[in-house]
Amino acid sequence: MLEDLIKERVKKRDNLIKAGYNVYPSKVEREYKIGDALRYFLFLSLLRRKVSVGGRIMGMRIQGGVMFLDIKDESGKIQAVLNKKKIKDFLVWKDNLDIGDFVIVSGKLFKTKKGQKSVDVGGFDIAAKSLRPLPDNWYGFQNEEERLRKRYLDILFNSEAKDVVEKRAKFWNAIRVFLIAKGFLEVETPVLEITPGGADARPFVTHHNALDTDVYLRISMGELWQKKLMAAGFEKTFEIGRQFRNEGMDAEHLQDYTQMEFYWAYADYEMGMELVEELYKHAAIETFGKLKFKIKDFEIDFDKKWERYDYLEIVKKYTGVDILNTDLKEMENKLRELKVEYDKKGFNITRAIDNLWKYCRKQIAGPGFLVGVPIEVSPLAKKDEKNPKLAQRFQVIIAGSEVGNGYSELNDPADQSQRFDEQMRLRAAGDEEAQMKDEDFIEALEYGMPPTCGFGVSERLFSFLMDRPARECQIFPLMKPKRD
Q1: What is the pLDDT of residues 352-409, one digit of tens each?
Q2: Of 114, 204, 259, 450, which sees the most CB atoms within 10 A?
Q3: The pLDDT of residue 369
Q4: Are 411 and 449 in contact (CB under 8 A)?
Q5: Parallel, antiparallel, or unpaired: how do β-strands 256-265 and 452-458 relate?
C-alpha cells in the first residue's frame, strides 16, 4: 500500500517536471516567516501589499475552482487560498500537489468570512516535492521506537518533541552564558585519546590508521586536559561537548551525550558548591522560567535551602553498613539481602561501596550536595584534610540520582601516581571501569598545578528538568539498526 502511494507521488512529480517546473529549486523567494506575517497581519492587510511566505502543506481542501492549503513553517501556520481564475496552471497544481509538499505563495493577506487569517494567492511555486506520505491516523507511528527512529516526523507533528529541541538549546546556552559571565574561557580538548581519563567508565576503542595505534573516545569532558591548562596558567576554563561511554542504556544513561565541565584555579569544593547552586538556578530560570519541578515522584524546589548529605551517614541509615569499618564480604552479603543487581566481573570494594550508595540515593529528593565521599571511589579528588579516608568531593542529588559531580582536584603528583597504580590493579583484576594511568598528566602535575575545583554535569540534568527519559531528550538518539 505504501509503495503504491509513493509511486503515485513520483508520477505527480514527473507531471510537474513535464509542465516545466523545477520541483527541487536551489533558491526560492520568501519574504516573511509565517509567524511574522501573522504578527503584523493587521498592518500588512491594511497596506494591501503582497507578501510571500513558504512552508509545508499540512492540509488541503478543494471546492470547485478554489483550493485551500494549510501551510506550516517553524514559526506558525496560515491558510493559502488558490483561485483558478488567478493562478496559472491551476489544474496542474490541483492534480499534482500532496500534503507534505513545500510551497511558496505570494498574495494579499485577508480574513475569510469565518475569520481565518489567509493569503489570497496570486503567485505560487513549489519548493520541494514530497514523495512519501506523512503519518496520519492510517499510516502513523506504531510504537515509541519508530517515533524516535523517525524523529524528524515526531518533531513535525508533536509540539512536545519540538519543545525539547528548543529548550535543549536554551539550556546549554544558559550554562555557557553563565560561565562566560563569571570569567570562564570556553576551550576545546581532544575527543580521541591515547589514554582515556577523568572518569570511571568503559571507553569505546577504535584504530587510528595514520598513527597506527588504538585510540579511545573520551569518557570525560577533557578533565585531564583542562587541568593541564590550569598548570599552563589559565585559571577558569570550561568545555561543552560530546563524550562517550560504552556502558548500559536506561532512562538515565546514554553512551553518546553532551556534558559540561569547568575547572577553577584557586578554588576548592566548597566554593564549587556555591557556584554550582547558582548555575543550576540560572539554567532552570532561563530555560523553563521556574525553579519548582515535578521530577519522577519528587517535588523539587531549587529555591529552597540546598541540603548537605553525608555519604557514610546515608549508607548506614538505609543499609546498616559502616563503610569505613567493614569488608567486601559484608557488603556483598548486604547487596544480596537488598536484592541489588550488580556486575560481578571484576567486583571489588570500590564497586561494592558504589552499589550500596546507589541503592540509598533513590530515597533522597534534593536538591542538595552529597559530601563525605570515601576516597576509594574518588581517584582524582583531594583527601579531606580532617579525615584522609574521605575525599573533598561533592555530587548534586536531585530526585534520587546524581546530577553533577565535582571535587577539589588532586594536585599532588605522588599521591595521584599511587591512586592511578591502585586503579590499574583493579583493572588487572577485571574492573573495566577503573581508570588507566596517565603518565603525561602526572608529569604535568610535577611541573605544578594550583589548587583547583572541577565540576561536570551532563544532559541528565536537562532530561530531569523535562521529566523525560534521557533518550527522549536527545534530538536524534542512537538507535539499533533496523532489521527487515
Answers
A1: 888 888 888 898 999 999 999 988 888 888 999 999 999 999 999 999 999 999 999 9
A2: 259
A3: 97
A4: yes
A5: antiparallel
- Residues with Cβ within 8 Å of residue 211, at least 6 apart in sequence: none
User: Of 412, 467, 477, nearest to 445 (Cα)?
Assistant: 412
SS3 210: coil
Residue 58 is placed in which grid cell? 499540512
Among 157-171, 289-303, 469-483, where is mean pLDDT lowest?
Answer: 469-483
Q: What is the Cα 167 distance to its own chain's centre?
A: 10
Q: Rounded to whole angstroms, how far apart are CA atoms 108 and 88? A: 17
* Sequence ranges of the domains in the chain: 2-140, 153-473
**CATH code at 2-140:** 2.40.50.140
Given this model, what pLDDT does residue 484 score? 60
pLDDT confidence of residue 423: 84
> How many CA within 13 A on the CB side of residue 49?
11
Taking only Cα atoms into account, the Rg of the chain, rounded to an integer number of angstroms, comes to: 29
Q: Please tell me the distance from the alpha carbon of residue 15 to that of residue 21, in angstroms, as a whole number.
A: 9
Name which CATH class applies to 153-473: alpha beta
Residue with cell 603528583: 413
Its pTM surpasses 0.85: yes
Hey, which residues does 59 pair with through a beta bridge? 70
Q: Which residue, 58, 93, 60, is CA-closest to 76?
A: 58
Nearest to 86 by CA among 50, 59, 112: 50
Average pLDDT over residues 116-125: 96
Distance CA 1, CA 375 (A): 63
Write the pLDDT tens digit of every residue in 426-451: 888 887 777 888 899 999 999 999 99
